[in-house]
Amino acid sequence: MYSKGILISVVFLLFNCFDVSGFKNNCKLREVFSWKQIGYDFDGVQYTNSTAAADSSEPFFNQYNNVPIGLEVHGDRVFVTVPRRRQGIPSTLNSVRLCPSSAPLLEPYPDSGSVSELVSVYRPRVDACGRLWVVDTGLIEIPGARRQVQPPAIIVYDLTTNKQIFRYQLKDTDLVNERTPGGLTSITVDVHPSNCGCAFAYITDLATGGIVVFSLEHLDSWRFDHPSFQYDENALNFTAAGQIINWKDGVFSVALSDYDALGKRKAYFHPLVSTKEFSIDTQLLKTKGASIDGKIKLVGDRGALSQSGSHGYHEATRTLLFANVAQDAILCWNVDTELTPNNVAIVAQDHQKLVYISDLKLVGDHVWVLSNQIPKFVFSQLNTNENNYFILKGRIQDLIRGTVCDGTKKY
Ligand SMILES: *[C@@H]1O[C@H](CO)[C@@H](O)[C@H](O)[C@H]1NC(C)=O
Ligand SMILES: *[C@@H]1O[C@H](CO)[C@@H](O)[C@H](O)[C@H]1NC(C)=O
To answer: Of 193, 191, 190, which is closest to residue 202 (Cα–Cα)?
Structure first.
């Protein structure tokens, strides 16, 4: 067992650190999985090739259309979501085990019998109480054939029993118009493990610029709108995967700070199309009907080409890590420093394996990322003979060592 572990480590080193083009700090990120194309395993029945439609209806599996977008990790299980943005997606919420396979087949979660209960899921979240939270947008987003199958809802699973705990349908007042459901692509759960019944969830709406708050205790939800949730006109047209990105995506990700002396925590957030970071006291978000005008703080500007999707806060190093889609990179910023371009560092960059980091999650001292080159899928064509989708992980202390984010470094 021991020598096998060493052998595997050596193989990983060879594969991941030997980089002729010399991309920065690549050795500190380890490749966990890579896929040319996604396949599925439904209770031992494997789907690794597209299936033809029996009649004029939608095929069960159209392999090329299966683009992984969301990631979450719990124990030895990795969750991978495949939103229904095209035809032929057998299962939108899936998991794989951290086993020797480097390109595992996705297994429907919680089981193959539940695949029709969820329409389309983006970025899932494991909370501090061993529960998995997802937002089902209820929307099939096939271009030219968008269909709201059911209203958007929050669904929560118990990760011990793999049973659904509850399903909460969002209220009409949480939604602005028919574009809103497609924007509900990330959820952050604010809960202390000593009080699991008192959880709040913050759902970002990147399409119509809002944050929807859910209270588990009151089984209620409400919405906040604010100009800081909107995309920034001046940050449009960055390049990713060789394509100019003109998506007008607003607020994309919420990252929670640790608790201060008064037991309060901050929510950091940013639109995808922006180089700025904002924050708000979570106490305000938790208060239905609160006025947030004048209460949102502009934390600072990360600098040119810092447009980022998901981000997360690492308490031990007091650092925020960002999925920086405009530079195929992971960025860091230590929250004890002023947020200016000089205090933001690239901790990893790779123009093959980090092309469009679609999700980023912090688990203990590790950062995990899923990259999917989605601009190529949308505007061009993926090469199905090469690896297109990657999941990588790295230890945060190693990644930030020697950068401006390393608080232990003396200047
Ligand atoms: C699946 O596709 C591969 C190559 O694309 C082909 O070699 C194989 O025969 C196919 N398998 C089935 C069961 O159709
Ligand atoms: C983005 O591109 C559009 C269309 O070419 C152009 O009108 C706009 O000025 C550009 N914005 C920026 C910030 O580059």
So the answer is: 190
